[in-house]
Amino acid sequence: MILVLGGVGAGKKEYALSLGYRVDDFTSDPYDGKPVLYGLETLVRKDPLSADVLFSAACGKEVVLCAEVGSGVIPLDRGEREYREAVGRLSVRLAKEATAVVRVVAGIPAVIKGEV
């Protein structure tokens, strides 16, 4: 599995397309048979306690796209803090299992683990 991280609008989808995937290969449903899962952070927002279940489902994908949500000011709202922490911890677990981890900044991919 390739884990692709980056800010909102940083070019994560475009990067996955550059790997040879098509728009039809993308899904936001972790149980869909499509190879590319995007919006992992949105799935965690719906239920931060579901991160363990999402981990297993995401590991079955070829590519997982997740927006970085932990940068910046720490929110006052407890739920927002728990959401950000859940996304961060899930990303750490996925990065450990991934064959490659790529961070996309301003449309430029930087491989931080493995080879793509």
Question: Keywords, please?
Answer:
116 residues, 6-stranded mixed sheet, alpha/beta, 37% helix, globular, Rossmann fold, 4 helices, single chain, 22% strand
Structure description:
There is one protein chain. With 116 residues, the protein is an alpha/beta fold. The chain has one domain (2-113): P-loop containing nucleotide triphosphate hydrolases (Rossmann fold). It is built from four helices and six strands; from the N terminus they run E-H-E-E-H-H-E-H-E-E. A six-stranded mixed β-sheet has the order 2-3-4-1-5-6, sandwiched between helices. Helix 2 (40-46) crosses helix 4 and helix 3 runs parallel beside helix 4. The longest helix has 20 residues, at 78-97. The protein is globular and about 40 Å long. The mean pLDDT is 93.
According to CATH, the fold-level topology is: Rossmann fold
Strand content: 15-25%
Give the biggest beta sheet. Answer: 6 strands, mixed
List segments where confidence is low: pLDDT < 50 over at least 5 consecutive residues. none
Radius of gyration: 13 Å
Architecture in CATH?
3-Layer(aba) Sandwich
CATH fourth-tier homologous superfamily: P-loop containing nucleotide triphosphate hydrolases
Number of domains: 1
Shape: globular
* Alpha-carbon distance between the two ends: 10 Å
Counting DSSP H or I runs of 4 or more residues, the number of helices is: 4
Structural class by helix and strand composition: alpha/beta
Strand order across the largest sheet: 2-3-4-1-5-6
> What's the rounded overall pLDDT mean?
93
Oligomeric state of this protein? single chain
SSE pattern, N- to C-terminal: EHEEHHEHEE
What's the CATH C level? Alpha Beta
Helix content: 25-40%
The total count of strands amounts to 6
